[in-house]
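Deliverable D4.2, example record:
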Amino acid sequence: MRYPALIFFRWREKRALSKLIVLAPANADEARQKLVYLIAAIVADPATSDAIGIADAIKTLKPFEGTLARCLNRRRNRFNDSPL
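Output generated by the structure prediction step:
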């Protein structure tokens, strides 16, 4: 019983990722959310990620490149400033 559910959930996940790839964000917040989801999908299972699809998804983020770069730098700087 567990395997059919797993197959179904993986199918839904792939379908959601393929829809996300073609979706163009309307604002910087949506672009940030899309970037975070794409990074999570790649980290979770690099074999599942379609390299061409991910490249297409990144193209939709191009109008928000500056905003996303600032967001990523701000997070990286928080880690660099930590006392650990």
